[in-house]
Amino acid sequence: MSVATPGAHTVAGSGPPGNRRPAEADRRKPHLLRPQGYTWILPAFVISVGLIYYAVGYTGYMSTLEWNGTSPTSTSVGAANYVQAFGDPIFWKAIRNTAIAFVFTFVLQTGLGFVFAAMLHSRPIAGNVYKVVLFLPVVLAPAITAPVFRQIFAADGQLNQLLSAIGLGGIAQPWLAQPSTALWAVLVIMVWHGTGLAVILYFAAMSQIDTEMLEAAEVDGAGNMRKLFSIILPNVKGTTTALATLTAIGVLKIFDIPYLVTVGGPNFATEFLGTMIYRTSILLGQVGYASAISILMLVLAIAMGLIFNVRRHRDGKGA
């Protein structure tokens, strides 16, 4: 017969493992990954892997062929299409136009977007109306606005009529019909389309700045311009980097505006990689060569994305 020792208490879980309660034993078991979440990500996974990456891989395969896109037979040419691209002056003109477009649109869109966002933060009368007006070009389809701009920049269009009315008729010219001005006219349209997005992003970034910081600067005697460039601008540096990334990828795949306005002309003055791929594959029937240009454009997009991503991380660590 066992005698209970005075003062002895039985503690849950302190006995032999076989006497522990099931709930406590379950808590000590490692939790296994449950596959319920896979059901939700499976459609997106199938689409991205089965459609996007398959298309990229198939495009890479076609870039090694000489094929017109309709013939049942094709000829393998290896890397000949890539060699042809690097020796094609039109390809390098498209690269040059892309670089010019990036610098021009990034400088103007970010500059105008920053200024307009700062003005909207001063709470002007009918500020919401200004936001709608500035953002409206972003949601307008280029197919709608292209005929309007073709008319504006025509030899007898509204721009030349305005210049003549204010005494500057001497500089009036057919803006879209000559290589020296066609590219700049297209870039102005691109800036008009994209500035609204920069305004909204900068406005959202400025809304996150601590107001106490601005109030402290006012107490120290800082004026509006001093606060704008010494406090607000450094605090929206991440937004500027994001806009640079979006602009770089956007100009690489731009197609609709230059094609609808100038069809890549005159004399390939407004040729971009997107318009060159369309013209080469659809109009000329050189699908293999167009596929090689597509792969080169993809490599450029990935490289620029990595560069800006590394820069963003460095800026974040520096901050």
Q: Spell the H/E element sequence.
A: HHEEHHHHHHHHHHHH
CATH topology: MetI-like fold
Shape: globular
Strand order of the largest sheet: 1-2
What is the terminal-to-terminal distance? 74 Å
From the alpha carbons, calculate the radius of gyration and give it in angstroms: 30 Å
Summarize the structure.
Residues 1-27 are annotated as: Disordered. Its main location: membrane. The protein is mainly α and 319 residues long.
Label this structure with key terms.
globular; two-stranded antiparallel sheet; 2 strands; mainly alpha; 319 residues; single chain; 14 helices; MetI-like fold; disordered N terminus
Describe the protein's architecture and organization.
A hairpin with an 8-residue loop joins β1 and β2. The chain has 14 helices and 2 strands. It has 319 residues and is mainly α. The N terminus is likely disordered. α2 packs across α14, α5 packs across α8 and α11 runs antiparallel to α14. The radius of gyration is 30 Å and the shape is globular. It has a two-stranded antiparallel sheet with strand order 1-2. Helix content is 69%, strand content 1%. The protein has a single domain, classed as MetI-like fold (Orthogonal Bundle), CATH 1.10.3720.10.
